[in-house]
């Protein structure tokens, strides 16, 4: 993960900072550990989607600046104040409410104005809306404008016309701010922008999925920023058996053996985040003393267990051996992109699906403070 961040930094101007996006438990990787790693790799700020996500970061002693990239309701704004977070705002009402909270708490708060330039999700959409927000900020002595940002909808597409249009709109708003003597930190690039549009990097980029080793799409220039997947998933083989021709496997008997078949049961299922759409479609890697071999999933993925065909695995497979569910072994690979294609989804969802039942073990620690 540290190398992914360092490689991204090489594609950016030296003055540009990296905001490490650790929302959704760092895309399933573990927010606390990934935050420590991001800090040691040079990230200047963290980003979460909700104020609640920052509670464990502060509880772990992480004192980096943290911005919230989604809207916060009144309770979340109060929590943001308590945790010294930087909320995203885009309405006068939220700015005025934040000033009330600041006055009650005797604190100041830094905010980031969000602009909707073509995503049609959240943010300021017109000069009139911007003017209203600036008027509110001018009346709020304890609310400080620290940053402004937008989010590209199609920066991972080969055709950059939409991203270029969004950036042009965004710069129109920046011009208005500058004319009023306001020069907040500017950030627009996400992972795809960091890779393909470094000219739009400005003061900071928000590095998300690519921090964890995956490209946002197959259309970005992968040679610009080399990446390596961070997460590997292993599961123990709990049973090995041979079934006869005509015997079926799993719920619904969706797999029937056309030959004498060696079957291994692996202790992972959709209750752990292994997608049920991988039934009769996915594959794992099994390693013996004779090498590493692909073993296809047969039958339906169960809640806690999955069966694989090890007939063509050379060597002895024993109970207690580990199957590679996600990762590499012996020159073979099962990636989140591979699984996503089979499930007709994206790598983000595959990574996020692996839940608390799958223990995390972190490697590459250099000091007690750098725990990944």
Can you characterise this structure?
Mean pLDDT is 96; it is low at 366-372. The chain has helices at residues 2-10, 23-27, 31-40, 55-59, 74-83, 92-105, 127-138, 161-179, 191-196, 336-343, 347-353; strands at residues 17-21, 45-48, 66-71, 86-89, 109-115, 143-150, 185-187, 204-207, 233-243, 248-249, 255-256, 261-266, 283-288, 291-298, 306-309, 322-329, 332-334. With 372 residues, the protein is of the alpha/beta class. The longest helix is centred in the middle third of the chain and has 19 residues, at 161-179. α5 crosses α6 and α10 packs across α11. It has 11 helices and 17 strands. Helix content is 28%, strand content 24%. It has 2 domains: 1-212, Alpha-Beta Barrel (TIM Barrel); 233-353, Lyase, Ornithine Decarboxylase, Chain A, domain 1 (Beta Barrel), CATH 2.40.37.10. It has an 8-stranded parallel sheet. Strands 9-12-15-14-13-16 form a 6-stranded antiparallel β-barrel. A two-stranded antiparallel sheet has the order 10-11. β16 (322-329) and β17 form a beta hairpin.
Write the layout of secondary structure elements.
Blueprint: H1 2-10, E1 17-21, H2 23-27, H3 31-40, E2 45-48, H4 55-59, E3 66-71, H5 74-83, E4 86-89, H6 92-105, E5 109-115, H7 127-138, E6 143-150, H8 161-179, E7 185-187, H9 191-196, E8 204-207, E9 233-243, E10 248-249, E11 255-256, E12 261-266, E13 283-288, E14 291-298, E15 306-309, E16 322-329, E17 332-334, H10 336-343, H11 347-353
Parallel strand pairs: 1-2, 1-8, 2-3, 3-4, 4-5, 5-6, 6-7
Antiparallel strand pairs: 9-12, 9-16, 10-11, 12-15, 13-14, 13-16, 14-15, 16-17
Helix pairs in contact: 5-6, 6-7, 10-11
